[in-house]
Amino acid sequence: MNIIKAHNLACPIDGVRLELQEKQFVCANGHAFDIARQGYVNLLPVQHKRTKQPGDSKEMVLARSQFLNSGVYQPVAKKLADITLAQMAGSNKICLMDAGCGEGYYLNFVCTYMQDKTGDRDLSLIGLDISKEAIIEAAKRNKQITWIVGTNRQPPVDDESVDIIICVFGFQNFDGFNKILKPGGKVILIEPGSEHLKELREVIYNEVKKSDPADLSCLNEMGFVMTDSQSLQFKTGEINKEQLADLLLMTPHFHRATQAGRDAASKLTKLDLSVDVVFRTLEKKH
């Protein structure tokens, strides 16, 4: 499989196709966006920001990077790569976007996995995240991937130009996804199951509520049909105090927990965690 650079980026101001000119992306109306020295491009204009520094902070990005690099979630990445490959059948040119890519662990894993597969296919990969700090970290992982700062609400990509969108524990916006997906395109959602990290949740919350991933039948009206659902459960084995601190900081539980809950988690020296992840694939029918 041939990994190529994405050529379907769009101006976030007027939606016109961006063309690469030396170290800039420029649209026909003269809007220009520099490629940063780290290799990414910022396509999040001020008017699209809801806060001054949207998305994950530098501390959260570092925590996620350290935890994921330890390999604890590698089975999740491997299953994601397998499911993604299965959705590529019959296509010779594929554009894959990770919507909310964070610091790039999962998309980099998929890229490396696909590179080892035989076949004369061209694959372009786009990593999109609203956090500039996350994209800076992601750009260190893989120079073959097109890394961009942007939002899932208004992805700076040509209409109907993406074949597969993956969204790993991320913010889903199906209006934005629908706009950029080709007819027949796929969305692969990776979400926590009801038992995910239950041992940690039992420490930080007084009451642990089990909840399944949201019902997506409302998306039928938009033309999305669920075509596949799979789950993955495993135990991490004992992870240490530093890994637990990174894990807590990288999840929404850090902000949802009370100070007492965070204090209780900080006293843990080791924990054997349950991982419960659901993989759902939707197809855009029209």
Q: Mind telling me the CATH superfamily name of the domain at 2-52 and 71-196 and 223-235 and 275-284?
A: Vaccinia Virus protein VP39
CATH topology of the domain at 2-52 and 71-196 and 223-235 and 275-284: Rossmann fold
**Helix content range:** 25-40%
Q: N- to C-terminal separation?
A: 29 Å
Q: How many β strands by DSSP?
A: 12
Number of helices: 9
H/E topology pattern: EEEEEHHEHEHEEHEHEHHHE
Mean pLDDT over the full residue set? 93
Structural class: alpha/beta
Question: What is the C-alpha radius of gyration, as a whole number of Å?
Answer: 19 Å
CATH class of the domain at 2-52 and 71-196 and 223-235 and 275-284: Alpha Beta
Low-confidence stretches: none
CATH architecture of the domain at 2-52 and 71-196 and 223-235 and 275-284: 3-Layer(aba) Sandwich
Describe the structure.
The protein has 286 residues and is α/β, with parallel strands linked by helices. The protein has a domain at 2-52 and 71-196 and 223-235 and 275-284: Vaccinia Virus protein VP39 (Rossmann fold, 3-Layer(aba) Sandwich), CATH 3.40.50. The chain contains 9 helices and 12 strands. It has helices at residues 58-69, 74-86, 105-115, 132-138, 174-180, 198-204, 241-250, 253-256, 259-266, and strands spanning 2-4, 19-21, 24-26, 32-34, 41-42, 93-99, 122-129, 146-149, 162-168, 181-192, 224-240, 270-284. The protein starts with a strand and ends with a strand. The model has no long low-confidence stretch (mean pLDDT 93).
